[in-house]
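Kindly inspect this one:
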Amino acid sequence: MTTSTYRTAPGKTIDVGGVTYAYRELGPDGGVPVVFLNHLAATLDNWDPRVVDGFATKHHVVAIDYRGVGSSTGKTRTTVEDMARDASSVIRALGHDKVDLHGFSLGGMVSQAIAQLDPQLVRKLILTGTGPAGGVGIDKVTRLSYLDSVRGLLTLKDPKTYLFFTRTDNGKREAAAFLRRLKERKDDRDKAIAVSAFRAQLKAIHTWGTQKPADLSRVTVPVFVANGDDDRMVPTSNSYDMAERFPDSELAIYPDAGHGGVFQYHDRFVAQALEFLAK
């Protein structure tokens, strides 16, 4: 199977344990697929098509909605670990027993949990805009998310303008370009996240940020960590911390970039990620 772009990849569903999960897939068949796990409040339509399409030039890509999010049914999980167990179950139900994971923000937390709870499933990890359990500032994501959501309402802008990008002239341009890319898909779009699901995810992130740090030395698979140099949501210091604590890791920090640094620098990030996966 080859689908040319994320913009045209059909929406699909799979039933696992009484829950219907929404997903999209594209790229060549065969090899180890790359599973995309998304950020707080995100549905399938929140992935930057330039990033997904870039990965899909070389790999089969599967993007999954969490339980209770977007077009997936069920009650949204309130812990990262339960989200990880769900994701593992869906991946295996799709017929994959070995995958690479790309987790952005909340998805990076879920990816870390999968690597610890179901280590045989994971070949390589790509962790972007994210942090470890107990990481610096993660317990403040709820407050920041609400503040910037209100800021977005007052300025008639998408909150991601403030949450994902710097307020420099360059950051503002990149924010506008990113938001335009998210609207490229016109048909078969995902359902928006419900307020109750958003609150459940915030609870999960807060718990992750306040719990005891995990022993990342036990995650022995290769890890690629990437972020902007000025991440307000999950402070960039967490990226440096993870890169030091994983036994086999690489780190990329992008200048004049925030939480969405991998979207702002999508060309550079995709090239680095593909090189990492090819090793």
Notes: The chain has a mean pLDDT of 96. The chain is about 40% helix and 15% strand. Strands lie at 12-16, 19-26, 34-37, 61-64, 99-104, 122-128, 223-228, 249-254. The radius of gyration is 17 Å.
